[in-house]
Amino acid sequence: MNILLLGYGKMGKTIEQIALDRGHQIAARIDVNNRADLETLPADAVDAVIEFSSPESAVENIKICLTRGWPVVCGTTGWLSHRAEVEQLCRDTNGAFFYASNYSIGVNLFFRLNKTLAKFMRDYPSYRASMTEIHHTEKKDAPSGTAITLAEGLLEHLPHKSRWTLKETDHPNLGENQADAVEIESLREGAVPGTHTVRFDSDVDLIEITHVAHSRQGFALGAVVAAEWLAGREGVFGMDDLLGVMSDER
Ligand SMILES: NC(=O)C1=CN([C@@H]2O[C@H](COP(=O)(O)OP(=O)(O)OC[C@H]3O[C@@H](n4cnc5c(N)ncnc54)[C@H](OP(=O)(O)O)[C@@H]3O)[C@@H](O)[C@H]2O)C=CC1
Ligand SMILES: O=C(O)C1=N[C@H](C(=O)O)C[C@H](O)C1
Fold first, then answer.
1. Could you tell me the distance, in angstroms and rounded to a whole number, from the CA of residue 147 to the centre of ligand 2?
2. What is the CATH number of domain 2-103+216-248?
3. Distance 40 CA to ligand 2 centre (A)
4. Which atom of ligand 1 is nearest to the CA of 60?
5. pTM
6. Which residues pair with 165 in a beta bridge?
7. Where does NADP(+) bind (predicted)?
8. In the prediction, which pLDDT does 68 show?
């Protein structure tokens, strides 16, 4: 496939190597400096776009690509308040759009584990649900998209939880009733690729599950596989479509 890399930073460069190793070609490497090329590249030069840019630029990037008829695999997080309009544009243009907050197989297994644990805990509200995500110091958004997906999985199965909140380190919500919220703590440390911990803490014991990314390789491989999977498809997709029904759901 001829792959356009939209966003040529840490993820773009990691994806490039995996794509080349899998026999694909790079149609273009688009960054802030040469973004105008998105409009001038011949439409038939691109078979798929893999977009890992920034929260403030993803929506416009995706819209340009869908309008040009290019299938888009988007990994950028922090823009989901605009998700409905992006998905509608995909349908209006008979396009193909694939989004995942996390493309690694391990995290998507962790998403399933998280929901299973939440089902176990639904009748035990004395176990207070919370989360910690740790990422590198260059990360622009908080909480991580992965943490939000995990929180949504908890909210789906915990009747006593109705929202998630970002833990305020500077101005803790002292005294505010947070009982209905899943609190997410976002820590930024060194070059951490991505660590997510979901915990259920009671007065007498603690249950927690953790996923640790050792590098960006898992994210990048998943994004390239998604681009290969998306070829020839039309519509809006995510990792559940790619992975299908897993053994625990058969
Ligand atoms: N879904 C997943 O599995 C994963 C998602 N991510 C997400 O991907 C995004 C990128 O992460 P990462 O690669 O680490 O970030 P980087 O900052 O390393 O790379 C982003 C790149 O995009 C460029 N960029 C910014 N705006 C535009 C634009 N309008 N058009 C083209 N390029 C642009 C930046 O340029 P400049 O530096 O000049 O601003 C930068 O080179 C983040 O939102 C992150 O959360 C990351 C890993 C996995
Ligand atoms: O910014 C990152 O690096 C990552 N961002 C994604 C997120 O926001 O969940 C995925 C992964 O954790 C790495």
1. 9
2. 3.40.50.720
3. 30
4. 29
5. 0.96
6. 183
7. 35
8. 97
What pLDDT score was predicted for residue 198?
A: 98
Give the domain ranges of the chain. 2-103+216-248, 105-212
Residues in the chain where the model's pLDDT stays below 50: none
Going by C-alpha positions, the residue among 28, 106, 35 that lies closest to residue 16 is 28
By three-state DSSP, how is residue 198 classified? strand
Specify the residue with its C-alpha closest to ligand 2, atom 13.
Answer: 194
pLDDT one-digit tens code per residue, 43-91 = 999 999 999 999 999 999 999 999 999 999 999 999 999 999 999 999 9
Kind and range of the H or E element at 99? strand 96-99
- Ligand 1 atom at minimal distance to the Cα of residue 223: 3
Helix orientation angle between 217-230 and 105-121, rounded to the nearest 10 degrees: 100
Terminal alpha carbon distance of the chain:
33
SS (H, E, C) 133-193: EEECCCCCCCCCHHHHHHHHHHHHHCCCCCEEEECCCCCCCCCCCCCCEEEEEEEECCCCC
- pLDDT of res. 246: 57
Domain 2-103+216-248 matches domain 105-212 at the CATH topology level: no
How many secondary structure helices (H) and strands (E) does the chain include? 8, 11
Q: Known binder of ligand: residue 76?
A: yes
**Residue positions counted in the chain:** 250
CA atoms within 13 A on the CB side of 72: 32
Domain 105-212 has CATH 3.30.360.10: yes
